[in-house]
Amino acid sequence: MSRHRLIFAGSGGQGVITAAIILAEAAVLFEGQNAVQSQSYGAAARGGISRSDVIISDAPIHFPKVNQPNTLICLTQEAYNKFNSVIRPGGILITDTHYVSLDTRAEARIYHLPLYTSVMQEIGKPVVFNICVLGALQAITGLVRLDSLHQILKKRIPSRFLDINERALQLGAELGKNTEVQTH
Amino acid sequence: MTQRTEFIQGNEVCVNAALYAGLDFFAGYPITPSSEIAETMAKQLPRIGGKFLQMEDEISSICSIIGASLTGHKVMTATSGPGFSLMQETLGFAVMAEIPCVIVDVQRGGPSTGLPTHGSQGDVYQARWGTHGDHAIIALTASNHQDLFSMTVEAFNMAETYRTPVILLMDEITGHTREPVNLPEQGEIPIIGRLRTSVPEGVDYHPYLPREDGRLPMSDFGGKHRYNVTGLYHDMWGFPTTDPNVIHGLIHHLMDKIENHAHEITRYREYYLDDAHTVLISYGCSARTALHVVNSRRRRGEKLGLLELQSLWPFPAELVRAKCAHAHYILVVEMNMGQVVHEVKKAVHEPERVYLANRVDGEFITPTDVRGIMRLIHGRGV
Q1: What is the residue extent of each domain of chain A?
Q2: Beta-bridge partners for B52
Q3: Nearest to B162 by CA among B126, B200, B194
Q4: Cα separations (Å) of B39 from B3, B83, B101, B201?
Q5: Fold designation for A3-183
Q6: Strand locations in B100-188, DSSP E?
Q7: How many other C-beta atoms can be found within 10 angstroms of the C-beta atom of residue B220?
Q8: Which of B9, B88, B127, B382 is 20 to 30 A from A133, alpha carbon to alpha carbon?
Q9: Taking a C-beta distance cutoff of 8 angstroms, is the pair B347, B301 a contact?
């Protein structure tokens, strides 16, 4: 039985929950996997810590929340400070160089990537930052195929925005692929 | 059999299932964590020729669906605790006037406005006794999306069968969590339609005269027959009465039509109960945690089992008594200060063996919480 637990954490409005949904939906619809996605909401729609949990497994999933993630994605300093200690030892931590400075040493394989900066340089639209993160996550973990994520983008995203999302996904995948693991 | 797999929220599953069951009228007022039900319904219902009404509040929402049901529609409204509170008076009217309708309560932390974005199971007793006066009620629940689909369809079926409001108790966790669900083809799950009278137009029709089997055929209000609908005690034409015999007959009819069919209404799932020394009893989101604990302990050879209740009212006391007959102890897992645990204590032979595993701080009860309480029961500390 393989089971992978992820926490996506960032700030409300960054699209962390959307990214989590796309990953989980891709696993279910195009990879024949089982997945559960849940989220914790505050009362506000913007700002504050936004968190989504995803479990991907080939077996039934009953308890839907994640305590110790195999992969932790932190897109703000606040999210990083709050969650970096819960990562499973030897797990994967993905952070963004623009939003997060690494100041504590987690026992993890750390991918500290210039995702936001690259999105702004190459595409110029911050709204696709979350999709770039998803591309990097795909390249690093191989949890789903890149094509499965493409299929979900096609399904969920209006055609006039599809191009920039696909470019962001590809950009993230390249950044994830070409980055050596930093071991602290 | 071709099924369509979707990866959607529980709230969206509820909408899909309601439409599958034949819902064609929805009135509601959005409230977290139920809002996606109204939102999705507003998109989908007009496409199939149904009516979606956003009302000014929850009182008018339930009044609308009752009116629409009387005219022959399959109806539902959805809300959360604060809105469910506002609906209680009219819920009683629907009980008294015997109007089929489905009321979804996606539970959040209470009392009052409480915790809008966090899960709870604090409305179990409100579903039973929220409206005043002696009455019987049906309340269903589910822990996963596949069961939520079938329980939603069952809610509509039972509303028609017993001519009664049926409450579907969801919670923030099942409502907002996304997981796969197989949407069945039409015909895979039986649908019970409105039982209409065969009395022809112009012939005296008795809206409140039960048939031999206890069911009451309806006539679409404003259609072929003139009759009265009231929240007062009424005779077989629906007109108010203070005749003690009629009153006695009506209150017994309202109770008996549900309580005497408890065995037909009861819905549950069971896991490893045959040789279980420890029986966990749970429902809704908490049953997910309970099942996680039972599965992991079984892998270690410990004799745990789970009885997952999917119908909470009428309370399946006989079922609980039978399934717990050989249990060394019984642990009720729920996210409130103890509601179903009291019903379990009443149902079993030795109530002192019944314990509560709960969590009420807004966080979803975890396997660690349940295991900690089991350690305490065994005298092993935390």
Answers
A1: 3-183
A2: B26
A3: B194
A4: 24, 16, 19, 40
A5: Pyruvate-ferredoxin Oxidoreductase; domain 3 (3.40.920)
A6: 101-109, 115-119, 138-141, 165-171, 178-183
A7: 15
A8: B9
A9: no
What six digits make up the tokens of B24? 């064609």
Residues in B 270-309 with any Cβ partner in A closer than 8 A:
288-289, 291-292, 295
Please give, rounded to a whole number of angstroms, the shortest distance from the CA of B365 to a CA of chain A. 9
The ipTM is 0.94
User: Cα–Cα distance between B111 and A175 in angstroms, integer?
Assistant: 49
- At B22, which amino acid appears? G
Q: Which is nearest to A35 in space by CA: A152, A168, A172?
A: A152
Helix (H, G, I), strand (E, B) or coil at B7: strand
* Contact between residue A69 and residue A33 where contact means Cβ atoms under 8 Å apart: no
The pLDDT tens digits of the residues spanning B258-301 come to: 999 999 999 999 999 999 999 999 999 999 999 999 999 999 99
Instruction: Please tell me if residue A1 touches chain B, with a CB cutoff of 8 Å.
Output: no
What's this model's pTM, rounded to 2 decimal places? 0.96
Q: Does residue A3 sit at the B interface (CB-CB below 8 Å)?
A: no
Per-residue pLDDT at A90 exceeds 60: yes
Q: Secondary structure of chain A: what % helix, strand, coil (to 5)? A: 45, 25, 35
> Domain-by-domain residue ranges, chain B?
4-183, 270-377
Token couple for A120: 């702004």
In this structure, which CATH number among 3.40.50.720, 3.60.15.10, 3.40.50.920, 3.40.50.1220 belongs to the domain B270-377?
3.40.50.920
Cβ separation B180–A35 shorter than 8 A? yes
- What's chain B's average pLDDT? 97
pLDDT, position A112: 95
- Please give the Cα distance from B76 to B101 (Å, whole number): 6
| Contact of B191 with B157, CB cutoff 8 Å | yes
Number of alpha helices (DSSP H) and beta strands (DSSP E) in chain A: 6, 7
| Termini Cα distance of chain A | 30
pLDDT tens column, B187-220 = 999 999 999 999 999 899 999 999 888 889 999 9
Compare CB distances from A64 to B32, B180, B288 and report the shortest one's residue: B288
Return the pLDDT at B213. 83
Chain A residue with CA closest to B115: the answer is: A43
- Copy the structure tokens of residue B263: 């065995």
Sign of CA dihedral B47, B48, B51, B55: negative
Select from 3.40.50.410, 3.20.20.60, 3.40.50.300, 3.40.50.970 the CATH code of B4-183.
3.40.50.970
A31, two tokens: 């990879």
Q: Maximum CA pair distance of chain B?
A: 75
Specify the pLDDT at position B212.
86
pLDDT for the residue numbered A117 = 97
* Mean pLDDT within B34-57: 97
B4-183 and B270-377 in the same fold: yes
The pLDDT value recorded for residue B2 is 52
Please check the confidence at residue A45 and state whether its pLDDT lies above 70. Answer: no
- Chain A residues whose CB is inside 8 A of the B178 CB are 21, 24-25, 36-38
